[in-house]
Write a structure and sequence with these properties.
It contains 22 helices and 20 strands. It is α+β, with helices and mostly antiparallel strands. It has a domain of 201 residues. The protein has a 20-stranded antiparallel beta sheet, sandwiched between helices. The longest helix has 21 residues. It is globular and about 85 Å long.
């Protein structure tokens, strides 16, 4: 039912022009952001056709949305449009916006000028729809006690009116809507002008975006970075970023690409297995300053290693980050204050390490390939139940030096001894697939003043050395799974992408099923239903979450291009 109501607001202002031209022809060149759907009907059907979307409408948790006065009014309006225009909404959307929708925005003082352009295929139907919109608005005003009527004028011979703060005009089968009268007049002039010829017929936003984006997006966005970066605020931001160690470490590569790119393009796509969002910028690693070698490997070397996905995985992450490069080049990459803090900490920690081990030397041997896993528990690590249950976390790094594995183990044992003295941890050792696991447990028969809710009973910190790789986990169970998973990924190809991540809806459903009580309580209190019905509602919610499949992201920075892809693969 809600699916039918979705396009009602689109139908309020849908249109086309008498000539089959690009709706971008009507967007003034001053627009710094452009959003386009060349086929709105396909876009809406891609959303409403999803089984997950249809199933969500049946969930009891969202019934209040459908039963709200706003939703009921939307259904009534949609029914009115369908009846008086003589077609159901999917066909209406094709008639009234079949040649595309475009929105342009220019950054300026509040309010920023915005222009919406809608092109349909039937001028008579567009005019009829617009007249119906005007009638509905006047009826709503009358219901509110107002006697005001819409006053129609014209802009260079084309009908126009004002609705509140919005200015609206129609040029043939093209409807234009803006919050700025000057912008609207400029767009009307563009809509009424003959279509440009040759290369000039292609709007700059489309020309730029389609150079980089995959073909046939359902919708796409173009952002004029070159004009945005002229502002003092943008310049101050980039200057500050170069001096901020944390930003350089986490998103330095991305920020540098934004700084050098003239535009950013985003496309939304429907694929056989789901949907994709592609983000592209015409700037890459070829012009990176030295400090951003942290984020990308030397030419010809591996970007990120295969994701680790043991049973029960909620989220898996793989990235390239050369910590050793940072430490070796700290004199060039860090300012005096931050470098001094790091070097002092390195000396203080090195004093308590066994033998002649130094933290700096360990950092230089630390490999650039990191993998992180968040997973559900098969069995809780303790009999005692913590006040807040957390999933297990794991970290795997491949050493960048053959001596890494032999050097890191005694350092970790030494650090663990200090922690065990403070928290009374008990050491234990396990074997799994021929690999030794060193673990530490909290005593269950002692209270800890700093942890009254027992949060510590989520953790059984442990580590293992698998050939040249260090495995650290919050539970022995996950550590064993990671050891097995490492052996299972040996034949999987690495990737040129510097960051990869994958979220599992199935894992999220398992986590939700393990702690249903808050959702059951909420259902009972908010909807006044019985315990059995509340449990059924939560079970239906868990099943719906499980059906959502996986969400993954991948960032590749080539010599000349920044490429980020976000993919929803539906189960």
């Amino acid at each position: 039912m809600f699916r039918r109501a979705l396009p009602v607001f689109v139908l309020a202002f849908v249109a086309n022009s008498a000539r089959a031209a690009d709706p971008l022809d009507c967007i003034p060149p001053s627009a710094q952001v452009v959003i386009v759907s060349d086929s709105p009907k396909k876009l809406v059907e891609a959303i409403t056709g999803l089984e997950a979307f249809q199933t969500a409408q049946k969930l009891s948790q969202y019934r209040t949305v459908y039963d709200s006065a706003t939703a009921k009014r939307a259904f009534q309006l949609l029914a009115t449009f369908e009846k008086k225009l003589g077609a159901k909404w999917p066909d209406l959307l094709g008639q009234l916006a079949g040649d595309g929708v475009a929105l342009g925005l220019q950054f300026a003082d509040d309010p920023a000028p915005v222009i919406l352009v809608l092109r349909g295929k039937d001028e008579a139907q567009v005019k009829k729809a617009l007249d119906l919109v005007a009638s509905v608005i006047e009826d709503e005003l009358a219901r509110g006690g107002s006697k005001e009527k819409l006053k129609w004028s014209d802009i260079t011979g084309h009908p126009a009116t004002k609705i509140g703060d919005a200015h609206l005009a129609r040029v043939g089968a093209t409807v234009l809507l803006s919050n700025n009268e000057t912008v609207l007049k400029a767009s009307v002039a563009l809509a009424a002008a003959p279509p440009p010829a040759g290369e000039a017929n292609i709007h700059k936003a489309r020309r730029d975006a389609f150079k980089l984006l995959p073909k046939d997006p359902l919708a796409w966005l173009w952002l004029d970075l070159a004009s945005v970066k002229k502002s003092k605020a943008s310049k101050d931001f980039f200057d500050a970023t170069r001096q901020d160690f944390l930003q350089t470490l986490v998103v330095g590569g991305t920020i540098d690409c934004v700084k050098r790119a003239d535009f950013l393009a985003v496309g939304v796509y429907k694929e056989p297995t789901g949907h994709r969002i592609a983000v592209r910028m015409p700037a890459g690693r070829g012009e990176f300053p030295p400090e951003y070698q942290l984020h990308v490997p030397p030419k010809g070397e591996t970007g990120s290693l295969p994701l680790l996905e043991p049973p029960g995985t909620l989220y898996s992450h793989s990235l390239y980050l050369d910590v050793g490069f940072l430490w070796k080049n700290r004199a060039k990459l860090l300012n005096d204050e931050i470098r001094g803090q790091f070097e002092k900490a390195e000396k203080d920690v090195s004093k308590i390490l066994p033998g002649n081990a130094k933290v700096g030397e360990l950092l230089e041997m630390w490999g650039p390939h990191h993998r992180i896993v968040v997973a559900n528990h098969d069995t809780p690590p303790y009999k005692k139940v913590p006040g807040q249950r957390l999933p297990a976390f794991g970290y795997v790094v491949a050493g960048g030096d053959p001596k890494f594995a032999k050097s890191i183990e005694p350092a970790l044992r030494s650090a663990a001894i200090i922690a065990s003295l403070q928290f009374d941890l008990k050491i234990s050792e396990h074997k799994h697939d021929g690999v030794s696991i060193v673990a530490y447990r909290f005593p269950e028969n002692k209270e800890l003043a700093d942890d009254p809710d027992g949060l510590r009973f989520n953790f059984e910190p442990c580590f293992a050395i698998v050939e040249d790789q260090l495995v650290v986990a919050t539970t022995v169970e996950l550590c064993k799974k990671l050891i097995t998973a490492l052996k299972g990924t040996e034949k999987h190809p690495a990737s040129s992408a510097v960051i990869r991540g994958k979220f599992s809806a199935s894992g999220a459903a398992d986590a939700l099923a393990a702690i249903p009580e808050p959702f059951i309580t909420d259902a009972i209190l908010t909807r006044g239903i019985g315990l059995d019905d509340a449990r059924k509602e939560v079970a239906a919610l868990v099943a719906w979450v499980r059906s959502l499949g996986t969400f993954r992201g991948e960032l590749a920075i080539t010599a000349k291009e920044y490429k980020l892809d976000l993919v929803w693969a539906i189960k």
